[in-house]
Amino acid sequence: MGPRIEDMPQDFKASLCLPTTSAPAAHSNGNCSSYTETRHLSVVGIMFVAQTLLGVGGVPIQPFGISYIDDFAHNSNSPLYLGILFAVTMMGPGLAFGLGSLMLRLYVDINQMPEGGISLTIKDPRWVGAWWLGFLIAAGSVALAAIPYFFFPKEMPKEKHELQFRRKVLAVTDSPARKDKDSPSKQSPGESTKKQDGLVQIAPNLTVIQFIKVFPRVLLQTLRHPIFLLVVLSQVCLSSMAAGMATFLPKFLERQFSITASYANLLIGCLSFPSVIVGIVVGGVLVKRLHLGPVGCGALCLLGMLLCLFFSLPLFFIGCPSHQIAGITHQTSAQPGPELFPSCMEVCSCPSDGFNPVCDPSTRVEYITPCHAGCSRQVVQDALDKSQVFYTNCSCVAEGNPVMAGSCDSTCSHLVVPFLLLVSLGSALACLTHTPSFMLILRGVKKEDKTLAVGIQFMFLRILAWMPSPVIHGSAIDTTCVHWALSCGRRAVCRYYNNDLLRNRFIGLQFFFKTGSVICFALVLAILRQQDKEARTKESRSSPAVAQQLLVSGPGKKPEDSRV
């Protein structure tokens, strides 16, 4: 049985080319009252409060959880544990993108479609998915996951002490005489531990006012550490890159390759975040297996970022050209103007803020609405699994061909997979630096300042990266817009972008932040090598002096300054 063609002129008549007398009255300004704007601001305020509570709730995991693990884990196991923590933390966004892909297949109002009898599909540019449903599912999951925290002890058994106890037992069973020889050396670790833990014991006794008074001094003292400052700056660059990707990569893929928002989220959740998890775990395993010191961690960070920068270069050349939009990007040299064919629309009363794109399949030219194509009739062609909407009697289309509802399909949508594979590979290489860079901070500051240093680090990441980076990326993306939709006489949302500018500026910002991270890690490695060289020089100079002092003072006396 052949397809059945049915005329449905009642569906969205405002988009058709109708005479001025019979055109539906525009009612777009009906929602521009002060009450509506106040209601919108209150919703934004609720979102701000929710994000604040989300940040407060994440503190026990990061940054406090990082210091907690490093305090109670053995030094050789700490990098692996931190790598597992960071990897599991990244599983959340990966699952969230997959969940978002499913939720975006549902319309924002699940039980109804928009007013006016408009029948939308997931490929329609006007489609808005049920973005709010994922928040409810995630909030319930977080509430359930928080219950086990109530059953954790105040202090965990320290792996370091357990290993020392086993070594003492082995030493006693092997040779009891070793106990007398080791007794003087057992006192020095205790004394040094007491000195190191002095500020740790005093810190809990500080009141909030006393802590506020001490905080600026501790902050300046921590920032004077060059390794700490450079590592934090490099992490700021990486976090700026990650914030831009997490916020705008789905939209970038949707616009650049003409795919649906659901498919874009699905690809990111299946490709990008698993590669990030692999990169974090591999970084932690390399630090543990290779027993990397500060210089080795710095070299691993620099190597990972250099490779990430190298694999980012092809991204500038993988993309799709901009669509040909009548009156916007597709103009005839003989008749430039606001429309492609100005004379064909004289009898139409097209809405200025309308958006119901149609495509001419013969020329691959897209029109903002059927009215802009001069179409006066709508036809629905029913098929076995779906129906296709056409618009006919189009006076502005060459030879009066019918046009299809929806935007024109891109001829290079298949490039989204290799593009995202390169992005995922670069993300994995960049995440190799995650655990080594944290180890540089944890091993580079004093034990009593470790928790505060990690807290300062996360404060800078929030203030300098996660807050401004989405604004910077969003502003850069807005500069590539070629057609804005208006709401209440003001710019609302961008309908069409210049794809070449969009790709160059979005990837260019990512490349800029990666370059900044490479520079910071290069400086870190140079400083670490210089410090290591100076330490070896001092050690070689002090060794003869210490030996001579031991001979003069005798076996019973201990040199006063024998520690390097």
Overview in brief:
By secondary structure, this protein is of the alpha+beta class. The chain has helices at residues 34-58, 64-72, 78-103, 131-145, 159-174, 178-196, 198-202, 208-223, 226-257, 261-289, 294-312, 416-431, 434-444, 450-466, 468-478, 499-553, and strands spanning 4-7, 324-325, 358-360, 365-367, 377-382, 387-392, 403-405, 481-487, 490-497. The chain contains 16 helices and nine strands.
Can you characterise this structure?
The chain is an alpha+beta fold. The protein has 16 helices and nine strands. It has helices at 34-58, 64-72, 78-103, 131-145, 159-174, 178-196, 198-202, 208-223, 226-257, 261-289, 294-312, 416-431, 434-444, 450-466, 468-478, 499-553, and strands at residues 4-7, 324-325, 358-360, 365-367, 377-382, 387-392, 403-405, 481-487, 490-497. The strands form two sheets. It has a seven-stranded mixed β-sheet, with no helix packed on it. Strands 8-9 form a two-stranded antiparallel sheet. A hairpin with a 4-residue loop joins strand 5 (377-382) and strand 6 (387-392). Helix 11 (294-312) packs antiparallel against helix 16. The N and C termini lie far apart (91 Å). Residues 1-11, 23-28, 175-204, 332-341 and 553-564 have low confidence and may be disordered. The chain crosses the membrane at residues 43-68, 80-108, 128-152, 227-249, 261-287, 299-319, 415-442, 463-486, 506-528. One of its GO terms (biological process) is sodium-independent organic anion transport.
